[in-house]
Amino acid sequence: MLTVLFAAKDERWPHYRDPLARAIAEAGIVAQVMTKADPALVDYIVFAPNGPVYDFAPFKRAKAVLSLWAGVEKIAPNPTLRLPLARMVDPGLAEGMVEYVTGHVLRHHLGIDRYVHGLRDWSPAVPPLARERRVAILGLGELGAACAQALAALNFRVSGWSRRPKTLPGILARSGEEGLVRTLAEAEILVALLPLTAETENLLDARRLSLLPQGAVLINPGRGAVIDDAALLAALDEGRLGHATLDVFREEPLPQGHPFWGHPKITITPHVAAETRPETASRVIAENIRRGEAGEPFLYLVDRAAGY
Amino acid sequence: MLTVLFAAKDERWPHYRDPLARAIAEAGIVAQVMTKADPALVDYIVFAPNGPVYDFAPFKRAKAVLSLWAGVEKIAPNPTLRLPLARMVDPGLAEGMVEYVTGHVLRHHLGIDRYVHGLRDWSPAVPPLARERRVAILGLGELGAACAQALAALNFRVSGWSRRPKTLPGILARSGEEGLVRTLAEAEILVALLPLTAETENLLDARRLSLLPQGAVLINPGRGAVIDDAALLAALDEGRLGHATLDVFREEPLPQGHPFWGHPKITITPHVAAETRPETASRVIAENIRRGEAGEPFLYLVDRAAGY
C-alpha cells in the first residue's frame, strides 16, 4: 500500500478527502491518503505552498511532489526539493478561468459597468462588434490558450504573446521582446495570464504599460507580481488606462489600506478566477501516482530551471 | 465618380463616415458620400426614416434607396418614392445580440455586479462552473438559436423553448404550454428573445414568472411587451426573482418616472443589444451600390405592395 501525504491547508482536507479517495480507487491504485505521516514512509506528496511542508529533505523515499496549484513559483526554488515536481493542470480550473476571462472581457467590451451602476437617462451607446475589438493574452500556457480560443470563438481579434514561440489556430501568436511591444501596442483589452518568474516579475512596468492604446483595459487573473502596482496606479490616474480588473495581488488577501481598494478605475475580485476544483484535480493527482508506479513520465512536470 | 447621399440622423454620420468609405472602396467603387447634396446629382440614397429626406421626387437620377433600417413600414408607403427600395439585413445585428446575451449571462453567472459595485473586504465566493448552470432561451428564431449555441459552447446547460417544435444540436428544445412550464421551472437564468405577437404579449405574466426557480435572473433583449411589467416588479420586490436586465420596453425611451428607473434589482440598457452596426451595414450598402452599377439585382429588395 502506498502512502500519500496531503500537505495543504487543513481547511482544504474536507474538500479533498472523498474526491481523492475516489480518484485513487478509480485509477486502480491501493493507497492511504494521510494529513500526517512519517516523512520516511511517504511515497507521494500532494502539495500546496500554504500547507505544513517546507523541508523536503526527510522525504527520502518519495517519488514526486504533486502540486495542487497551477503556479509553482513558491516551491520551484526550494533548495530542499530534489524530487520531480508536477504542477496542477485542472480541467475544472481551466473552465473556471475561461468563464472569468470571457465574462470580464465581454463586460469591458460591452461597457456593462455603466449599466450596472445605473443609467439616469436613456442614452444609447452601441459598442463595436467583437470582430472589431482587439484582445491580447499575455501567456499562452494551458489557461492562456484556452481563453484565447474561447475569445476567438466569440469573434474577438485575439493576439497572444509568450516567451517561447507558440502556434495556436486562429490566434496571432508572437514571442520575444519585439513581439511583446507589438502585442501591447494593439491591445484594447489585455489579459495577463503569465506565470511568475524572474523574467515576468514587473513585466508590466511603466514603460510597457505606456505602450497600450489610450483607454485600454487590463485584466489580471494570473499572478499579481507581474504588474508594477505603482506604475498601474499612475497609468490609471493619468487617464492613459481605462480600467483594471485584478484577481491576483502581490499580497493576498489584499491588505486593508492598499490604494487598489476603492479605486474608481479598479475592480477587485478576491482570487476567484482559478479555483482548483477537488473532483477534477483529484483525478490529475491519481493519474500522476498511477504514472509514477507504472514508470511512465509524470504529467505537467515542472522545468525547475525555467521556473514553470 | 458616384454621389451617395447619407440621409439619416446627423448624429449617425460620425459612426458611418469611415465604415462607409472603407466598404465602398473595398467594393471597388469610386464614390463620394455626402450628408448634403443637390438631389439632381445623387446616385444612391442611404436612408433612415428619422433623417432629413421626405420627398424623393427631386432625386431624378438616383438608382436606389438603401435603408439602414430592417423595418421599412415608415418609408414603403411614401408616394413620392418611385425608386427601388432595399431594406437592411445586417449580419452584425445577430453578432451583437450574441455578445450582449453571452456577456450578461456570464455577468449574472459569475456574480460580477458585486465586484463592479466594489468589494469592501476580501471575501471570496467561487461561482459554480457553467456546466452546473441552467440557462433557458425563450424563442429559438435566428437570434435565439445563435445565443443558445454560443452559451452551449461555453458549457452552460442550455434549454430552449419555441411555440413550434424545433431541433438544435446541444440544446434541450421544448415547445407548447407544457414545454414552457418545464423550461421556466429549471431556468436559473432566463433569456427572452421572443417576437411580439398576439400570443407572446404578456407571456411572462405573474403565473409564469412564479414558475421560475427562487432567485432566478431574467434577461430581455427581445420585445418589451412580452413581460407584464407589474408582475415583474412584484416578483422582484417580493424577492422571488433575483434580478432583471432589460434592453427593451413597452415604451421607448423608457418614460421618466417609470418604476424600472433606479430599481435596485433592474439593470436598464437602452435598446443597445441589437443595433444596426456601421461596419457590417456599410458592407451591405456598398454591395448594393456595386450591384446597381453592375446591373445586378439588389439584395433585400422590398416588395412595395406587400410592404416588406
Provide a descriptive summary of the structure in words:
Two copies of one chain form a homodimer. Chain A is of the alpha/beta class and 308 residues long. Helix content of chain A is 30%, strand content 17%. Chain A is built from eight helices and twelve strands. In chain A, the strands form two sheets. Chain A has a seven-stranded parallel sheet with strand order 8-7-6-9-10-11-12, sandwiched between helices. Chain A has a five-stranded parallel sheet with strand order 2-1-3-4-5, with helices on one face. The longest helix of chain A has 20 residues. In chain A, 46% of the residues are buried.
List keywords for this structure.
homodimer, about 300 residues, alpha/beta, seven-stranded parallel β-sheet, five-stranded parallel β-sheet, about 30% helix
Shape of chain A: elongated
Helix coverage percent of residues of chain A? 25-40%
Summed up, the helix count of chain A is: 8
Characterize the biggest β-sheet of chain A.
7 strands, parallel
Mean pLDDT of chain A: 95
Q: Which structural class do the helices and strands of chain A define?
A: alpha/beta
Q: Give the largest chain-chain interface (CB within 8 Å).
A: A-B, 52 and 51 residues
Q: Strand sequence of the main sheet of chain A, in spatial order?
A: 8-7-6-9-10-11-12
Question: What is the terminal separation of chain A in angstroms?
Answer: 31 Å
